[in-house]
Amino acid sequence: MSSNSYDLIIIGAGPGGYIAAERAGALGKRVLLIEKEYLGGVCLNWGCIPSKALLHSAKLYEHTHNASQFGVDIQGAVYNLEKAMSWKTNVIDTLRKGIAYKMKSHKVEVLNGTATLTGPRSVEVNGDSYTSDYIILATGSSPVVPPIPGADQSHVMTSNEVLSIDTLPSSIAIIGGGVIGMEFASFFSMVGVKVSVIEMLPDILPFLDGDITKLMKRSMKGVDFKLGCKVERIESDSVVYSRDGAEESVEADAVLLAIGRKPNIDGLGLEAAGVEFDRFGVKVSDTLRTNIPSIYAIGDLNGKSQLAHSASRMGEVAVKTMFGGTDRMRYHAIPLAIFSNPEIAGCGLTEAQAKEQGIDVDVAMMTMKASGRFLVEHGADENGSVKVIVDRSSRVLLGVYMIGGMCSEMIHAAATMIEAELRVQDIQEIVFPHPTVAEVMKDAFWSL
Ligand SMILES: Cc1cc2nc3c(=O)[nH]c(=O)nc-3n(C[C@H](O)[C@H](O)[C@H](O)COP(=O)(O)OP(=O)(O)OC[C@H]3O[C@@H](n4cnc5c(N)ncnc54)[C@H](O)[C@@H]3O)c2cc1C
């Protein structure tokens, strides 16, 4: 094999690309991973990890206000943004080194540069050509900047810039009530910033179970929700929006655009290689193969599921199937988590989605206050709930949605149950450890 010839070339080193590289390296394949910026992609450098680092620091700060009920009196707590940012940078550096180590230990060659496809099995980087039996495109996505008048001002940011601010604004308007919008709404309101969320749709988080969304809005007391409102323009200190045909405005020292992300397809050479795509991303089969048999597209780039763990799983499916294994991407049991305060997690069908599909369902909703551990750690004022959705005739579990506690740490159990098509009676036989908040999930199944 010539020095520029590989079994697999991967473009983009996010959670899709680096996991695919690791899996192919473990199979003994010769792999080249090309990245134009940093190992870890958006997830590690501008997404999952930095946002969670800031959210954790804000949650700690928030706990100092509530610690007294647990017998801990804390006076004079101060939120220090500069230190929180340096903690965030520290975590990113450590994790980047961890990925570099994994690539080395799996003999993956890492090349820094911008890659362009030049054909079905060839790529150009920094003026050099590389060939490969297979190519995985894993170039991710970027924030959408809408054509709103005033969106080009310096106080208007996307999630990229907001993760590196050096001072807290006194007020922020967040345009978009999706996952990213709600996580930043939580962060800013916990550290004392006046927060408004402006959402064009009638509700925030439209893909979530309605009961959970209701509880979320009730819990986020510090956030002013402007629902069914269309942003008309951004001024230097306010955002102007229309509601039912009338213009209103909200104060905003800073503005965060959180209206969605678009696939990184520009300049990738898709046309040169004959790869089909549309504005939602590169078109793929359930093995992540494009219309060109040697080229696969995984992660945010194909628009199927914009989550880090989906990207990684897609990388695994692509690698396994291209080298002769059998696998396919299944989307029905991918868990989602929103690391807001309170946290939200969900998996499978919501009650409304099941009904839309004509399925008769039984549902049960349990308060987390029934859990000794939840009460011990969250006090009397905090709420949490678990909702389970079950097919009435087969008694098979269809979905689980939760709010409160560290529910993101429990949702993989629901994913396992849904993947395994467990019935209520199967789940009732599983032993849950005590005292844990997860026991509430079991209680919900017994109440059906
Ligand atoms: C603020 C924020 C918070 C998030 N929080 C979560 C969360 O908590 N949980 C979760 O599951 N998901 C979260 N996400 C989504 C998650 O970050 C993405 O789903 C995930 O990063 C997608 O992985 P990927 O491998 O497809 O692409 P990316 O992580 O986007 O990586 C793509 C990489 O490709 C590189 N690249 C692009 N073009 C080229 C080229 N031509 N040549 C070489 N390299 C190239 C880019 O530089 C980038 O490093 C969050 C996103 C944001 C913005």
Q: Which key terms come to mind for this protein?
A:
single chain; 448 residues; alpha/beta; 5-stranded parallel sheet; binds flavin-adenine dinucleotide
Descriptive notes:
This protein is of the alpha/beta class. It is built from 14 helices and 24 strands. Strands 1, 2, 3, 4, 5, 6 and 19 form a seven-stranded mixed β-sheet that branches. It has a five-stranded parallel β-sheet with strand order 8-15-9-10-11. The protein has a five-stranded antiparallel β-sheet with strand order 20-21-24-23-22, sandwiched between helices. Helix 3 (48-66) crosses helix 4 (81-105). The model has no long low-confidence stretch (mean pLDDT 97). Flavin-adenine dinucleotide is lined by residues 11-17, 34-37, 41-43, 46-48, 51, 114-115, 138-141, 159, 180, 264, 268, 299-301, 306-309, 311, 339.
Main beta-sheet strand count, sense and barrel state:
7 strands, mixed
List the total number of helices. 14
- Unreliable residue stretches: none
Mean pLDDT: 97
In this entry the ligands are: flavin-adenine dinucleotide
From the N-terminal CA to the C-terminal CA, the straight-line distance is 61 Å
Please tally the β strands and state the result: 24
| Amount of beta strand | 25-35%
Q: Taking Cα atoms only, what radius of gyration do you get, to the nearest Å?
A: 23 Å
- The secondary-structure class comes to alpha/beta
Give the CA-based shape: globular
User: Could you estimate the helical fraction of the residues in percent?
Assistant: 25-40%
